[in-house]
Amino acid sequence: MSNSRPLITLSLVSIISLPVCAGDLSEGARLHQEGNCLSCHQERPYSKLKTPSFSKLTTRVNGCSNQLNLGWFDDEVRAVSRYLDATYYHFSK
Predict the structure, then answer these.
(1) Long-range CB contacts (< 8 A, 24+ apart) of 36-41?
(2) What whole-number distance in Å separates Cα of residue 90 and Cα of residue 4?
(3) For the chain, what percent of residues have pLDDT higher than 90?
(4) What is the rounded CA–CA span in Å between residue 33 and residue 48?
(5) What per-residue confidence (pLDDT) applies to 93?
(6) pLDDT of 39-70, one tens digit each?
(7) If you placed Cys at 28, which of 2, 7, 16, 79 could pair as Cys (CB 3.0 to 4.6 Å)?
(8) Which of 51, 53, 73, 54 has the alpha carbon at shortest distance from 62?
(9) Which helix (H) or strand (E) holds 6?
């Protein structure tokens, strides 16, 4: 019985984590759309030349939020950063 505990724990962690990740991406997509981000970034959306890492991406998203007075909290900046990473950059594997 004790041999099955790690497998059960791992399964539960995986199940619990999936909705958070999916919800985070949908939240990031919603904020990205509401922030009208493509009004500035439509010609060449999101180049790795100016944003070479995920940490730089988060810094740039925070800068856009501040410059446009979007009022995004840190978790919202992270959600948009994760959405942009999943959609355009692909830093995270």
Answers:
(1) 37/64, 37/80, 40/64
(2) 35
(3) 55
(4) 21
(5) 61
(6) 888 767 788 888 999 999 999 999 999 999 99
(7) 79
(8) 73
(9) helix 5-34
